[in-house]
Target: CU044_5270 family protein
Amino acid sequence: MRDLPPGLPEPTDESVSRTWHRITAQRKPARARTPSRILVPAMAAALVAGLVVGGAALFRPDGGGGDLEAGSPSDEKTAEPNLTPASPQTVAVLHALAEAAKHGPAAAKVRPGQLIFVYHDGWAASFQANAGGAKGEGAAGAAPPEANLESGTIERQIREMWFDPQGMVPRSITDGSKELGTGGDRGQVEPTDLGLRAPTPEWIAGLPTDPEQLRGKLRELAGEGGAWSTDHSLWNALQDFYFTSDLLMTPELRAALLLSFTGLRGITSSETTIDGRRLVAVRHTERGVGDEILFDPATGSAVGRRSVTLDADLKIVSGPGVPKLDPDVTYQATWTQKVVATVGDR
Model:
C-alpha cells in the first residue's frame, strides 16, 4: 500500500471494516498496489491495502494521423490488468517529448556529502470515515465537509524534502514551516537494495540508453504485478523515480526513457494546464485509478504527478481556497529539484 503523506489522518477501524466489506462484496481480487516511499495521493486513506473499489480502466484506441495532439485520457473500466497497447497518437506524443528531451538540461553533478532538495507544491484529497455521521478533522486541522468512503476533501500539500542521493533516503521533510520527520526509519541503503526504488547517481548513469533494453531492464526491476499488471507496478515506481531523480538524468537517458514508454501497456496522453503552465500528462490507468506523470513539453523533463479516480460514486470536494482542478483529481503536485550542500539549503 502507498504510505500516507506526513500529516494526513490514518483510516479508522470502521473505515477499514466498511471498505473491506465493499471490496469483498464485489468479489474483484486485487493485490496491494506497489509501495510508494515518498508521496502518495491521499486517496489511500479511503482504501484498504491499496485495494481500489471498482474495476480497472482500459484505453480505447484513439487512432493516429493528422496534427500531433496530446490525446485523451482513458475512462473505461475492467476488473483485469490493463494490457492495451499505447495508441499511435500517444506514441507520437512520446516521440515528441523524447525529441525535446534530447535538447534538455544536462545531468546535475552531485559531490560527496551533497543532497537533493525537492520542493513539492500540490493538492491532495483527505479521505475520512465519520462514525455516526460526525465530521472529522482535516489534515490541516480545519473541519472539512462531511466525508465518508464516498467523498474526499482536497487540501493544500506543501512539502520540502532533502534526500541523500545514495539511495534517495529522506533526511528531512517539512511542510514549509515545521519538521514532519523523514517518513520512516530507513537509514543507509544496502548495495543490494539499490535500483529503481533506491537509485544513486552512479546507478542512473549506468542505465542503458537503448529504449528497448531500458524497458526490459525496468520491467525486470518492477517484477510481477499479480492481479495488477507489471507495467502498473513499473509506472508507480517511475513516479517516485522522477520525483527524486529527474535532474540526475542525461538528455540521452531522459529521451530513451520516454521512448521506452511506447512499448508499455495501458498508457495514454493528454494536455493539461496547471498554474497557467501547459503540460503533457502521460497516464497509466488500471482498476479505476489513473496515475499520471506530468512533463514539460519544451524540455521533456518530468515536473509533476497527478492521480485521478474513475469511480463515479466517489465525490471529491474542494476545501477553502482550492483552485479549480480537472475533474476527479484526487492528487496533483508539481516540483522543482536542486543539488544543495545540507538540510535547510534551498
